[in-house]
Automatic annotation (TrEMBL):
Gene Ontology annotations of biological process type: glutamate biosynthetic process; L-glutamine catabolic process
Chain sites annotated for binding substrate: S63, N113, E158, N165, Y189, Y241, V259
PANTHER family (UniProt xref): GLUTAMINASE (PTHR12544:SF29)
Protein name listed in UniProt: Glutaminase
Lineage, opening ranks: Bacteria, Pseudomonadati, Campylobacterota, Epsilonproteobacteria, Campylobacterales
Top-level division of the source organism's lineage: Bacteria
InterPro entries: Beta-lactam/transpept-like (IPR012338), Glutaminase (IPR015868)
Keyword entries, A-Z: Acetylation, Hydrolase
SUPFAM superfamilies membership: beta-lactamase/transpeptidase-like (SSF56601)
Gene name of this polypeptide: glsA
Species whose genome carries this gene: Poseidonibacter parvus
Assembly with partners or alone: Homotetramer.
Protein family (similarity comment): Belongs to the glutaminase family.
Keyword 4Fe-4S: no
EC number: 3.5.1.2
Enzyme class: hydrolase
């Protein structure tokens, strides 16, 4: 299959959607980003890559970081992690408080904000002040790129305006589901969200999930096969918050989005894909990114269904 031709076609076909959507402006540092960007990278298990658009341009990975922290927490705690965070879709927005109260401070899954804050808290229990370095090092290792870092401006902006996230962590603390200092946990969470990467780096970093937990380029085992399966399942059912059903319906691949405008998707046994376009749909997922992935699975037949 000629993937380069296919993604070139997709770049042409998505142009009409640039009128729609809106960049995330609840994080002021993200509000002034050029909305008319598009990039898409594919990485095959044998290391071949295909790129279209400005694939060198770095952006804030935001909630895509939740895949990495969940991987680390699952590695560390195994099944006992699920005493503190579930594995069911929430059907609510990523920053919603409402279900947390009904469900006694136990977030539905690790890919909504509350769930990711809990997984970060579990990492702090083990790595304390080294937690962020540990997360960053894992991301660098999975991408095989040691230049990756976080954006201090985005980090401070989130810290200053993260009122809902503060509400989430406080509510969970009241239900005894946060064990470490609230400030430290939330700072680590915001730092991981403000990590910046381009589509090529993100596609590289997710390749292990298309290959049963092993990065096929470096041969590093990042997680075991059984757990890689769980991570993919949760990406399929929960990776797009209250639009996870819609993403599965239209794209049919495990995927994870972030409000920075990135989406990663996995074609098991074949490739990882990353798309970037910063204007978001109502549920906070890249509008053009979702469209591009839908076109991709339609044109290639590479959905898991
Ligand atoms: N959906 C997202 O990407 C949200 C992440 C963002 N840092 C927040 O906490 O609100």
């Amino acid at each position: 299959m000629n993937y380069q031709n296919i993604i070139n076609e997709i770049e042409d076909e998505i142009q009409v959607y640039f009128k729609e959507g809106k960049v995330a402006d609840y994080i002021p540092a993200l509000a002034h980003i050029n909305p008319n960007q598009f990039a898409m990278s594919i990485k095959l298990l044998d290391g071949t890559s295909f790129n279209v658009g400005n694939t060198q341009n770095k952006f804030s990975i935001q909630s895509i970081s939740k895949v990495f922290t969940f991987t680390l927490a699952l590695q560390l705690y195994g099944r006992s992690l699920y005493k503190r965070v579930g594995h069911e879709p929430s059907g609510d927005p990523f920053n919603s408080l409402i279900q947390l109260e009904y469900e006694n401070g136990i977030p539905r899954n690790p890919f909504i904000n509350a769930g990711a804050i809990v997984t970060t808290d579990t990492l702090l229990s083990k790595y304390q002040d080294k937690s962020f370095d540990y997360i960053l090092d894992f991301i660098r290792t999975s991408a095989n790129d040691f230049t990756i870092n976080y954006d201090k401006e985005v980090y401070s902006s989130e810290l200053e305006h993260g009122f809902l996230n503060m509400a989430l962590i406080n509510m969970m603390k009241s239900y005894k589901n946060i064990n470490n200092d609230l400030e430290k946990v939330i700072q680590t969470y915001f730092k991981q969200c403000s990590i910046e990467m381009n589509t090529e780096q993100l596609a590289n970093s997710m390749l292990f999930l298309a290959n049963h937990g092993v990065n096929p380029i470096t041969n590093k085992v990042l997680i075991n096969e059984a757990k890689a399966k769980r991570i993919n399942s949760l990406m399929l059912t929960c990776g797009h918050y209250d639009a996870s059903g819609d993403f599965a319906y239209k794209v049919g691949l495990p995927g994870k989005s972030g409000v920075g405008g990135g989406i990663v998707a996995i074609v098991p046994g074949k490739m990882s894909i990353c798309v970037y376009s910063p204007k978001l749909n109502k549920q906070g997922n890249s509008l053009i990114g979702t469209k591009a992935l839908e076109l991709f699975t339609t044109k290639t037949g590479l959905s898991i269904f």
